[in-house]
Amino acid sequence: MNRRSLIKKLGVTLGATIVSSDTIAKIAGNTYSYSIPPNPAHKPFAKPVTAITLGAGNRGNVYGGFAAQFPDQLDIIGVAEPVPFRNDRYAGIHKIVAGNRFNTWEDVFKRPKFADAVIISMPDNLHYEPCMKALEMGYDILLEKPIAPTEKECRNILAMAKKTGRIVAVCHVLRYAPYFVKMKELIAAGAIGQVMSVQHLEPIEHTHMAHSYVRGNWHNSKETTPILLAKSCHDLDIIKWVIDKPSREIVAMGDLKWFRKENAPEGSTDRCTSGCRVERECPYSAIREYVERGGRNKVLDIPDNATAEEKKALIIERLHTTNYGRCVYRMDNDQPDHYITSIRFADNVTANFSMEAFTSYAGRRTRVFGAMGDMAGDMTELVITDFRTGKQQKLKPVAEDVEGYKNSGHGGGDWLLARDFVQAVAHQDPKMLTSTIDESIESHLMGFMAEKSRKTKKVTEVVV
Q1: pLDDT means over runs of 10, the chain (464 residues)
Q2: Which residue in 91, 170, 83 sits closest to 131, CA to CA?
Q3: What residues contact 63, with CB distance under 8 A and at least 6 apart?
Q4: Any domain includes 41
Q5: 3-state DSSP assignment of residue 303
Q6: What region holds the Gfo/Idh/MocA-like oxidoreductase C-terminal domain (predicted)?
Q7: In a domain, 304, yes or no
Q8: Is 397 helix (H, G, I), strand (E, B) or coil?
């Protein structure tokens, strides 16, 4: 099939605009690469959007990185961050004046409004109050997911956004990843006929699970949010967005099975650094992960200008003093390490979602089953099979991942969201976004109802 025929057949669109043929290139045989061109609805604006970042950790630096790369679009002029190292680093990157640096989010709002927008990238349990206050003061908001820890708080933020008329963009960044954009477009174009069902897998990857949901900030659901919202509200959202039908009911099962005290190996200790006799053979060794592999060390606040020996010494010191050095079997964690959810959407479309900790790989896997074909992919390749002809087409997305956060698992969606948010704020047009709070809240409600189902062992209705 030639390129023109491929474009016609697949109905490749972005909004109502045909994607130009130069965004698709044949690799070999029936395999094509593609990229998403700039949104044609984007328009020039006179000066960059100004923003204050609340929370200068991982996600705050992802969106801050967009501002550093594109200062003509986004200018970070303030930061609230209680950890001095992070506050200093962020202020240095963005040249934030001393008067616009704050320890807490409350301090920011003691001043009259002094920016166009607020980026809320603090821990999950600290989303609600600053979001409500920012809306009250007239700020537009880029809100890291989950929206808030409870259904009531999510609904309150939605109501406040409507009352104030402000823009609230929820960071459901998978909606902006070229892989999922194309999946949605093809389904809407009828590439596989009517959709019957979806199977979606999120393989967390075993060391990521240990890092974030056993040792890390989200290890305790009562202090943060349930793992289905903290990690997988992306996935509930992308299933719903791709199917493009309202959800009706949901049932869920899952539990914490492995990372428990009764599974601690004989000879293990409270910390990997405390003479554990099985540390060398443990797949969750903190020494192997943080010291030897150098993985996921951003959370340890190691200065960039430290020498290799200094970094090693600092990492070891952190393993002696923080949760990141503790034994995964002896933490006060309660997040399920495996979780399955079944959803019924309108028109009797069904979906099964599985979140699995025990994988050697990451990268979401999706299978969509239609009356006239199916599609399957892993975010690096999307394979479409036409039942009528028996032929396959393979599409490989080309996307720019965030510098310094390669393999984020978001398929390049982070900065594409930031780009659209800036446009939405600059032109006061929420239609520039696909993840406004109005669009994003249903998948959060699905998550809350799934947790209710898991705990009550009953099928639960989803009421938007």
Answers
A1: 48 34 72 85 95 96 95 98 96 98 98 98 96 98 96 97 98 94 94 97 97 96 93 96 96 97 97 97 97 92 92 96 98 97 98 98 96 96 95 88 55 91 97 94 96 97 92
A2: 170
A3: 53, 119, 121, 142, 414, 418
A4: no
A5: coil
A6: 184-376
A7: yes
A8: strand
Residue 278 lies in a domain: yes
Number of domains into which the chain is organized: 1
Runs of H (alpha helix) within 217-300? 227-230, 233-243, 286
Q: Please, how many CA atoms are within 13 Å of residue 462, restricted to the half-sphere of its CB?
A: 27
Joined tokens for residue 385: 């099979």
The CA distance from 5 to 31, in Å, is 14
Q: What is the pLDDT of residues 399-410, one digit of tens each?
A: 765 555 444 557
Q: Which two tokens stand for residue 188?
A: 């809407």
8-state DSSP, 436: B
The residue range of the domain holding 289 is 261-325
Q: Establish how many alpha carbons lie within 13 A of residue 336's alpha carbon, considering only the half-sphere containing its beta carbon.
A: 22
DSSP string of 260-276? SGGGPPTT--SBTTS--
User: Is 20 strand, coil or helix?
Assistant: coil
> What tokens does 59 get?
């996600």
What are the backbone dihedrals phi and psi of residue 194, each rounded to the nearest 5 degrees, phi first?
Answer: -65, 135
**Assigned domain for 159 exists:** no
